[in-house]
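INFO  loader      accepted 1 record
INFO  loader      residues=88
INFO  predictor   begin
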Amino acid sequence: MSEKKKDAMAQVEKWKAALIEAANLAGMVLGDKEISAQPNGLMHLQKQLLSEILKSKCVEIWNVDEGITKIKDNIGYKRVLIVLDDVD
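INFO  predictor   done
INFO  writer      dumping tokens
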């Protein structure tokens, strides 16, 4: 097998492992439009997203802007697959 083909196969295996890991997170459901429409609903979803990705139970967010900053700071350097469905 050529070196180029070996490299391509290694890349395929890397992507396969990443997709399997992402599929293992399939149980992570962050809610729906009704939650985000409630008072503090967006902050609740931000806390849930951060706690799921960071594997932490205690994520403190006091307002939506702080949540945006924390998400950027904590997820900005990680490889994360986020699927958004039924978004307005």
